[in-house]
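Changelog note: in this version the structure field was regenerated for every chain. One regenerated record is shown below for reference.
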Amino acid sequence: MQQQGNNLIYHVIAFLTVVVWGSTFISTKVLINNGLSPAQIFTFRFLIAYILMLFVSHKRLFADNLKDELIMLALGASGGSVYFLTENCALLYSTTTNVSLIVCSCPLFATFLFCLFYKNIRLTRRQWAGAFIAFLGMIAVVLNGQFVLNLSPLGDSLAFGACLCWAVYSILMKPVTGRYGSAFITRKVFFYGLLTILPYYFFFPELPGMQIFANPVVFCNILFLGCIASMVCFLTWTWCIRKLGAMQVTNYVYVNPITTIIFGAWILDEHITVWFILGTALILLGLYLSNYHANRNEAEKPTV
C-alpha cells in the first residue's frame, strides 16, 4: 500500500512536469515574437538552469567512465541543443498547437526504439493498431481540415525532428538513471546542451542586446523557462524516470498538447477546430494502445 502511494506521487509529479512543459510552447512563441531567435532562447534558458544546478550538484564533475560520459553528451544534445533548436525553429513556421501535437508523438517513437534495443519488448497487434490510429490522428491535426492550404512542411518536419530527439533522449536515460543521481544527470544534460549549441554560433554569431531584457515580458518568460521549465522540470523528470522507468514517464508527454491547446487559445487566440479535437483524441488513443503493454514489459537489459 505504501509503495502504491509513493508511486502515485511520482505519477502526479510527472503529470505536473508535462503540464508546465505544455505551456513552454507559448512562452517560446512570445519570445520569438519579441525578437529572440530559437538558439538564443535555448541558450539563455539552459545557462540559467545550469548555474542554478551548480548550487544543487557541484561535488562530482565526471561520470564513472568514458562510455557513460559520452551518454551524458548524447543526452545533452538529444534532450537539449538539437531538440530545442528543432522544436523552437518549428514554432517559427507553425502554430504552437501543431508543434505540440507532433512532438507529443515521441512516446510512439520511443516504443519502437525500446523494441530495437531491449530484448523483452515486442509490439503486439494492439500496439500496431494504436500506431496506425495515432498516424491518422497526426494527419487530422497537420491538415486541420484544409488538406493543402494549412500545411507547413518545414515547420512540421522540424517538429518531427524534435520528436525523434526526445525519443532518443528517453531511451538513453534508461542505462544511466540506475547508476547516477538525478541532480548529477540533470546538471550534465544542461552542460552538454550548452556545449553542443556552440557550433551553431560559429555560423550564426548573433546575440541580442541586453536592453531586450528590460522588457518585462521577455525577462519573465526567460526566467520561467530557465528556472521552472528547465531546472525544476528536468530535475523532476529525471527523478520520476528513476522511480517509474523511462517508458511509463514518457507516456505523460500525451498530456502536452492538451495543455498547449488551452494556453494557445487563451493567450495567442489560436483557434481550436473540430479537426484538432478529433486528431488529439486519435493521437491519445493510439499512443495509449501502442504503449499499453510496453509499460508492463519494459526490459532491464539492452540487446546491444
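Spot check on this record: The CA atoms of residues 86 and 161 lie 6 Å apart. Confidence is low (pLDDT under 50) at residues 294-304.
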